[in-house]
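Support reply, case 0932

Customer input (verbatim):
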Amino acid sequence: MIKIFLIIFSLLISNISFANLPVKMTEKGICFSPEHPSYEKVKNYIKTFKSLEQCLKSGGRIPERTS
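Our regenerated output:
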């Protein structure tokens, strides 16, 4: 039973690899990290960064929360 759980867990972890995806900055200066729900929808971006921190330091901002 534990062996099956470990196999399933490792398969899930391997598919959730955000580390290799860049942070996207839009023309409006919004930084979208790979974890953001709208990340895949962002097609028109002007620059990419290795981290959210780098994007924010370059003058970007995080997306506003919508309820």
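We compared this against your earlier run and they match. Two observations from our side: Residues 2-15 form the longest helix (14 residues). The first strand starts at residue 23 and ends at 26. Please reopen the case if you see a mismatch on your end.
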